[in-house]
What we know:
By secondary structure, this protein is mostly helical. 71% of the residues lie in helices and 3% in strands. It contains 6 helices and 2 strands, in the order ααβαααβα. It has a two-stranded parallel sheet with strand order 1-2. The longest helix is centred in the middle third of the chain and has 22 residues.
Amino acid sequence: MYSAPHTAVGITCTMLTYKLTNNLNASYLVGGIAAFMSHYFVDYLGEAGLKKSELFKFDVLPNIVILLIGFVSGNFWLFLVGSTMGNLMDIIDKKFYLSIFYPKKYPATYFFHTQTPIIKFTEKQTKIAAFVSILICITLIFI
């Protein structure tokens, strides 16, 4: 799965922990751990490959918008921790994403990516998932 859905699920973990506990430290710790663990399960949703020209529009841009939403809403640190922890398995296995741009110099590892997707998204569903991720994060502000 591309990073925007991992970001949305990770932020859901930190924001809901905050809403339940009203404690920032618990939200960073417990929500962050839940966000990290959620990555494994979200990867059971397999994405359709996007063209390199589409990656910015359907992966990078949604993440930027989501973090801007966090900043404007006053929840930036909860959003950042959720986003980072929700994507940490990819950050580790893809060598800070260097393996995408320099696969020979920084080959990807598979410490955390051993599962086979159960549900395989089409290209259209993969693109929709990016924008649904933004909507989820907007909704979290109002809960």
